[in-house]
Design a protein that fits this description.
There is one protein chain. A hairpin with a 4-residue loop joins strand 20 and strand 21. The chain has a 7-stranded mixed β-sheet with strand order 8-9-20-21-22-19-25, with helices on one face. Strands 1-11-4-3-15-26 form a 6-stranded parallel β-sheet. A 4-stranded mixed β-sheet has the order 2-14-13-12. It contains 14 helices and 26 strands. The chain is α/β, with parallel strands linked by helices. The longest helix has 29 residues. The chain folds into 2 domains: 250 residues, FAD/NAD(P)-binding domain, CATH 3.50.50.60; 233 residues, Cholesterol Oxidase, domain 2 (2-Layer Sandwich), CATH 3.30.410.40. It binds flavin-adenine dinucleotide and 2-acetamido-2-deoxy-beta-D-glucopyranose (8 copies). One 2-acetamido-2-deoxy-beta-D-glucopyranose (NAG) binds next to loops.
Length: 580
Amino acid sequence: MALCCSTFFFAALSSILFSAPLRASQKVSNYTFMRNATAAPDISYYDYIVIGGGTAGCPLAATLSQNYSVLLLERGGSPYGNPNITNLAAFGAALSDTSPTSPAQRFISEDGVINSRARVLGGGSCLNAGFYTRASPQYAREAGWDGRAVNESYEWVEKVVAFEPEVKQWQSAVREGLLEIGVVPNNGFSYDHIGGTKVGGTIFDHQGFRHTAADLLQYANPSAITLLLHATVHRILFRVKDGSKPMAHGVVFRDSLGRKHKAYLNRHPKSEIIVSAGALGSPQLLMLSGVGPRQHLRAHNISVTLDQPLVGQGMSDNPMNAIFVPSPQPVEISLIEVVGITSFGSYIEAASGENFAGGSPTDYGMFSPKIGQLSRVPPKERTPEAIAKATEAMQGLDQAAFRGGFILEKIMGPISSGHLELRTRDPNENPSVTFNYFQDPLDLERCVQGLSTVEKIIESKAFASFRYPNMPLAMLLNMTANSPVNLLPKHTNSSLSLQQFCRDTVMTIWHYHGGCQVGKVVDRDYKVLGVDALRVIDGSTFNYSPGTNPQATVMMLGRYMGVKILTQRLRATAADQTQQ
Ligand SMILES: Cc1cc2nc3c(=O)[nH]c(=O)nc-3n(C[C@H](O)[C@H](O)[C@H](O)COP(=O)(O)OP(=O)(O)OC[C@H]3O[C@@H](n4cnc5c(N)ncnc54)[C@H](O)[C@@H]3O)c2cc1C
Ligand SMILES: *[C@@H]1O[C@H](CO)[C@@H](O)[C@H](O)[C@H]1NC(C)=O
Ligand SMILES: *[C@@H]1O[C@H](CO)[C@@H](O)[C@H](O)[C@H]1NC(C)=O
Ligand SMILES: *[C@@H]1O[C@H](CO)[C@@H](O)[C@H](O)[C@H]1NC(C)=O
Ligand SMILES: *[C@@H]1O[C@H](CO)[C@@H](O)[C@H](O)[C@H]1NC(C)=O
Ligand SMILES: *[C@@H]1O[C@H](CO)[C@@H](O)[C@H](O)[C@H]1NC(C)=O
Ligand SMILES: *[C@@H]1O[C@H](CO)[C@@H](O)[C@H](O)[C@H]1NC(C)=O
Ligand SMILES: *[C@@H]1O[C@H](CO)[C@@H](O)[C@H](O)[C@H]1NC(C)=O
Ligand SMILES: *[C@@H]1O[C@H](CO)[C@@H](O)[C@H](O)[C@H]1NC(C)=O
């Protein structure tokens, strides 16, 4: 897929520019400090314990290990050597694997939209569509972050995982279409979040090889970090003394044989446990550890450490809606490369190409029913039978029907939000989660405006060679149509509104967040309110999703907070020494 010469040039250039850390063709494959949890002692002690080796947890643990002993506990396995994770063309292979050992754990929200969460070292960055783009400086200001340290942290991440994509014919047409219809200016290639049209970064290199948050562990101090795989944390342990706040001091985790292990903090007032288990995992683990709404914990026979009604509140998922545009001419395989940042709070992105990784073009891809993207039937009707039916219907189609791409819109925010609840006390099981897509009218309005923009792109001159001239737009959107390429819901209502289209075809772009929000569950230093020695650092702390896509900011936050924790501790130590 990559051109020989540009690849060669890039490798040569990168060896000059980036002596350390590793990059591009130098692939990390193993770490000396990575272990199967079965090999862990029954009891061990550390300065920091990080729960969840995901998108935030890896950069955080790597940073803390520069000066202190760190235990990083990840419930999944290693991403290295798994082609389902490392190859761009295999996108969706992991997402369609619903076995208990899959790096992706499927869940279905109470809204009825099929979704997925990571269960692998590197977290969501091992499953995602790779688009890499920063949050706006305004977002950083509102979060109370230091702008310079934020930029330094983004750069630290980008040195290892971010690349400029080689934009080919179909993505270029989407970009030209966006510019033609007025999503301007043209911002060229940029990581920055600025209004207009741009090409963003990607964590796939020019060979289509994925670089993930796990690669940031190459920054770790190998003699100070312990990384355990297949280590599922069941509970955070608290020490409760009369008159003071409960203090986190250890964790209980189980290995793949079900054996129990305990890890404790070294006795030092600055030692901490940090939860980076993601938007579903972090609120779930707090609740399992007795930090959550009292009634709810009692109903599950969990003894209450702290009555905290806001744990699990503020769960949001940015709704995604898309239109498939069949193409008369060949298109490249691409995930997200171009983005239109509109003035009305919709982001336009696109993905193209047949995907034969599974032997058939219907197997994977960003919009395959096998990965749970089933816009053909409304939410709540997306049963396993419906998935099987949709897959079968697609298999009957001519392969030419899959030549083309999806142009999607996702909305900023969103404003609508829901909540998370435990189903059982087993941390391996999904909690129940409700997102309430489009409950707020402004969210719906942004979807409608976004889809109108997508329609305009499809009808633009710049995009003309990638749509059939005899296929009117109405047909692409016509839910009653029987077109062979109609992948949209069959709907008996012919007076279709875009509002209805938004609701009926809503999918996830997997940017769900919340559950341990800043100002509600954690303070602006990500310390859990009402207890000591415990923070949450990951996407569960967001009040709304950063940038057009979150992963850059999640990784940045891991690094940023790692540096901040080290700096604060260094200052406190220096102050203590001056006093003595
Ligand atoms: C399919 C998909 C496509 C996406 N596309 C993009 C994109 O193109 N661009 C973009 O910017 N973003 C994208 N995203 C979103 C982005 O990847 C996520 O927002 C981000 O990875 C979340 O990071 P996190 O650290 O909050 O959680 P995660 O990365 O999920 O990390 C949580 C980690 O904790 C572990 N864990 C959970 N519970 C426990 C426990 N009890 N014990 C031990 N370990 C535990 C999990 O296994 C996981 O590794 C996508 C996401 C998905 C799933
Ligand atoms: C990774 O390294 C560890 C420790 O050196 C070793 O035990 C393990 O077999 C290696 N795994 C792979 C896949 O190379
Ligand atoms: C971890 O080690 C145990 C015991 O040696 C083994 O049974 C198990 O398969 C290993 N798990 C993985 C995922 O390597
Ligand atoms: C890759 O994905 C396919 C399809 O989901 C699955 O059958 C296979 O077991 C996966 N392979 C690995 C190494 O995870
Ligand atoms: C951080 O970088 C962005 C561009 O990516 C720039 O607009 C902003 O001014 C920088 N902030 C600081 C404080 O340097
Ligand atoms: C809680 O404990 C009670 C009494 O032991 C038991 O009857 C009930 O089933 C338990 N509930 C749950 C959800 O485990
Ligand atoms: C939608 O498709 C149906 C059936 O093919 C057709 O009768 C109807 O005219 C179409 N509506 C529009 C708006 O194209
Ligand atoms: C059809 O759609 C229109 C516009 O959204 C709506 O007003 C009407 O109630 C719908 N009719 C049915 C039968 O669903
Ligand atoms: C980390 O340790 C090094 C020496 O090992 C020291 O120079 C540095 O100041 C320390 N940094 C912090 C933030 O503690």
